[in-house]
Amino acid sequence: MEASSPPAAVSAAPPDDDRIRSLDASIQAVWRIKLAGLSLFLLLPVLFYDLTFLFSPDPWLPFGVLSGTGLVVGTAFTLLWPRLRYRSWGFALWPEELYREHGVITHVRTVVPLRRIQHVDVSQDLLEREFALGRLVVHTAGSRSSDVVIPGLPLPEAERIRDEIKRFILEDPLLEDPV
Amino acid sequence: MPSSSPASDPDASASESPPDAAPPPSADAPPAADSSATLGTVREPQRLHPLTLLLRVGASLPALVIILLPTLQNPSSENALSVVLGLLYGLVALPAIVMQYLRFSYRITPQQIVIQKGVLNRKNRSIPIERVQNIQIEQNLFARLLGVAKVNIETAGSSGTEGSLEYVGVDAAHEIRQAVRSFQHRTAEAPAPDEDTDDPHRDTLYTMNLRRVLLSGAFRFSLFYLALIFSALELIDPELIVERVLRSEGRIEQVTDLMTAYPALAILGSVGTAVVLGWISGILVHVSRYYGFRLWLDDDKLRKRHGLFTVTEGTVPLGKVQALILRTNPLMRAFGWYGLEVQTVGTDVNEQGHRVIAPFVQYDDLLPLAQRIRSFDLPDQFRSVSPLTIRRRFFRYSVVLGLALAPLIYFWPVTWWHLGGVALPWWGLVLVPGLLGWAVLQYRHHGYKQRDDGLYVRRGVLSRHLWVLPTEKFHVFAATASLFQRRLGLKTLYVDTAGAASFAYPEVIDLPAGEADALLDTLYHRFKTLYRTRIEAETGDADTRLSPDERPRLPVEHTDAHVSAPSSPPTDES
Questions:
Q1: 20 to 30 Å CA-CA from B294: which of B194, B392, B559, B560?
Q2: Per-residue pLDDT of chain B in tens (574 residues, 90 and over written 9)
Q3: Comparing C-alpha atoms, which of B32, B37, B34 is closest to residue B14?
Q4: Which of A14, A145, A171 sits opposite B496 (nearest CB)?
Q5: What is the CATH T-level fold of the domain A93-170, as seen in this structure?
Q6: How far away is chain B from the Cα of A147, in angstroms, using its nearest Cα?
Q7: Testing the interface with B: which of A111, A112, A147, A172 to mutate, by most B Cβ within 10 A?
C-alpha cells in the first residue's frame, strides 16, 4: 500500500495469493472417516444396551429404536459436520503474517505474525498420508494459543508454506529473541 | 572490583578453590570475590556436593516410614513383612542414591552447560550458554543448614527447568552463576559484570518486613491451602486431638447436643471454622513463602529473594517481561493494597502462571515500581464492552443455577425441609435478581483501553486483574464469536502474549463485533508498524525481505503469474 507499487500492467488481475484460501477438499473425506469411526465407537454401547432388552417381556422402547436413532444421528453428523467444518476454514499466508479463520460453533479469526513463530512442523497421520495431505503446525511461545494448526493442505503446499515461513524467520534483520 | 577481564585466563588458577571444598556456614556469604580465579573450576566435569548424599537419603526417609508404618503402629510379629520390605528398600535405595551421585557430573564451558547423568539410561544434556535465561539458586531448610543449594537452569524455549544441579555448595552455586554471566556478557561483547551483583542493597526496589508479610497473608483468603491441610490431617487422625482437647473437660457433650438441636448452627459452625482455618493457613503459607521479600534491580535484571524455610532467588530480565498484571480484590482495594505480577517465560511462577514482583504494595508505591519495570501510562478511563454482555452473563448464570437446582428439586425428599409449602431448593430461585446484579457488576468492572504503547484490559469483581500488554510483546491476535455471541453481534478479542498457561487471560469479552474486528486490526497494525520502524532503524532501510518478489506467498500452481500487487494486510481498516 505505501511503497514499491508494481507496474500498473499487473494490477488488472487481483493477485491470486492474497485471497483467503480454503483447505484441500479431500480433508472432508479424512474427517468423515474419523467421525464415522467415532460414531461407530459410540454406537456400540447403545447397540449393546438395546440387545440386552431384546428378549425382555416389557421393554422400555421397542427394539432398535435407540440404536436406530443413534445410527441416523451418527450418519447425519458424519455426513454434514465435515462439510460445515470445511466451509468454516480459511487461511492465507500474507507477507508478514499467517491468517486463519475456522470454527463451526465458535468462529475464530487468528492472526499470527510470522516473526512470532518459534518453529514450524508439517505432520501427517496415517489417514492424511493416504490422502497426501499435510498438517501445518506453527508453534509460538504464546500462553494459550501456542500451537496454530492448519490441517488438510496438500503435502507439497504445506512444505512450501513451511519453507516460506522459515525463510522469513531466518532473514529477520532484527537480531532479537522471539520471546 | 576492577578485575579487568574475568575468565580470560581461567586455567591458570584452577586449583585455587576446588568446588568440593567445605561450604561456608551461612547462606548469604558473598560469592568468591575474584571470579576470574574460580571460573576454571567449573570447566572440568564436576560432581555434586558430597552432602547431597545425606540430603537424598533424608528425602527418601518418608517413603521408608510409610513402608514401616504397620510395624510402627503395631509392633508384632505379623507385621514383620514390612520390616523385610524396609530392609529391601534400603538395599535398593541406598546404592541407587550413591550410584546416581557418582554418575552425575556437570561442567560449564564458554559455549554450553553440560550435564551428564543417569545410571541405567545415560543422559547427556547440553544447554547453550546464550539460551540460558536465568540461573536460580534455591535453598530449602535442610540445604541451608548444610550450606548447600540447588541450582536451576532456565531457558526460554522450555516451560520448565532445563536442568538442575541438586545440590552444590553455596559458593559453587554463586560461582556457576557468575561463570555463566561472564560467558554470556563476553559473547555480547559487553563489559563483564565485575561487581558483586548479589548485593541486595544496591538498588532495592521493594522490601517486605514481617508486619507487611503478615498483613498481606491476612488479606488473602484461600481454600486451597485449607484443602491441603485437611488432606494432611487424614494422616494424623484429628479425632484424637479433638477428643483430648474437648472430652477431657466434658465439653464435647454440650457441643454435640447443641449441634443436633440446631443443624443450621452446625453448618454455620463448620463453614466458620473452614473460613478461619483457611484464613490462618493463608497467612502461614504467605509468611513461609514471602518472608524477607526483597526485590532489587541489577543492571537490566530484576532480582528477588524471599522465603522462610526455602529461600528462593529469582531473576527476571527486564526485556523478557511480557506483560504486567496488577491484581487486587475488593477488600485489599478498600485499604489501597495491590499486588504486582509479571508474565514471563520460564518457571518460578505462582498458581496463576505469573511471576510475583511485589505481593503487597500500596497504590502510591505500585505505579512507580511498575514504571521501573516497564514504562506505561495507566489510563484513567476504560472503554466498556457492549452492555449486551449483561444479558449473556445473566442468562449463563441463570442456566447454571437452574442446572444446579433442578436435580435438587426433583429428588428433594418429602420429609426434608419445606419452607412455605415448597421444597427448600425452590427458594434458590430467590438468587436470580442477585445474578442480575452480579452480571452488572462484571460488566462494570470489565473494560479496555488501546494506546500506542499497548493494550490495557481490566476484568474481575472479586479477583480483579489489570493487564498491561505492551505492543512489542503482542504475540498472536484472535477474535472469536461463539454461537450465542453471533446472535447478539458480539465478539471476544484476545491478544496472546508469551508465557505459561494461566487461569485468567486478558480477553476483552463481548465487544460489538465491528469494534472487536477494528480493534484487532488497529492492534496488529500498531504491532507491525512498530517492528517495521525497528527494522528500518536497524538496517537503515525498509524491510528488504518484503520487496514484491521476495514476499512469502501462497504457492500458486501457475508460477508464470509471478508478479503480485503489494498485498494488503489482512487488517485493512478502511
A1: B194
A2: 333 443 333 333 333 334 443 344 443 333 433 444 445 556 778 889 988 898 888 888 888 888 877 777 776 666 777 788 888 888 888 888 999 899 899 988 888 888 888 888 888 888 888 777 778 888 888 888 888 998 888 776 555 667 888 888 888 888 888 888 787 776 554 444 444 455 545 688 899 999 999 998 888 766 666 666 666 666 656 566 666 665 556 666 676 777 777 777 778 887 888 788 888 888 888 898 899 999 998 878 888 888 888 888 877 888 888 999 999 989 899 999 999 999 887 656 666 668 888 989 999 999 999 998 988 888 999 999 999 999 999 999 999 999 999 998 888 888 887 877 788 888 888 999 999 999 999 999 999 999 989 999 999 998 899 999 999 999 999 999 999 999 999 999 999 998 877 878 999 999 999 999 999 999 999 999 898 888 888 777 766 666 555 555 554 444 443 444 444 444 443 3
A3: B37
A4: A145
A5: PH-domain like (2.30.29)
A6: 10
A7: A111
Which B residues 154-183 touch A at CB under 8 Å?
A: 156-157
Q: For chain A, how long is the longest CA-to-CA vector? A: 83
Delimit the domains of chain B by residue range: 35-48+104-198, 214-290, 386-443
A 71-110 near B (Cβ less than 8 A) = 92-97, 99, 103, 105-110
DSSP 8-state code for residue A175: -
Cell of B436: 442480575
Please state, in angstroms and rounded to a whole number, the distance separating the CA atoms of residues B472 and B534: 10
Give me the amino acid identity at A12: A
Sign of torsion over alpha carbons B204, B210, B212, B216: positive
Residue with C-alpha cell 483468603? B221
Model ipTM value: 0.85
CATH of domain B35-48+104-198: 2.30.29
How many other C-beta atoms can be found within 10 angstroms of the C-beta atom of residue B317?
16
d(CA B138, CA B170): 10
In the DSSP assignment, the letter for residue B551 is -
Rounded to a whole number of angstroms, the distance between the first and last alpha carbons of chain B is: 60
Cα–Cα distance for residue pair B107/B431, rounded to 1 Å: 64
CA distance A119 to A148: 11
The three cell numbers of residue B271 are 463453614
Number of CB atoms found within 10 A of residue B121's CB: 6
- Residues whose CB is less than 8 angstroms from the CB of residue B462 and which lie 6 or more positions away in sequence, other chains included: B329, B330
CA angle A96, A98, A99 (to 5 degrees): 120
Torsion of CA B354, B357, B361, B363, to 10 degrees: -80
Neighbours of B122 (CB within 10 A): 9
Could you tell me the three cell numbers for B304?
Answer: 528477588
Query: How is chain A split into domains, by residue range?
Result: 27-86, 93-170
Amino acid B451 reads R
A26: amino acid identity, one letter: S
**How many residues can be counted in chain B?**
574
The C-alpha angle B272, B275, B280, rounded to 5 degrees, equals 125
- Find out whether B323 and B343 touch, Cβ atoms under 8 Å: yes
Rounded to a whole number of angstroms, the distance from the CA of B462 to the nearest CA of chain A is 23
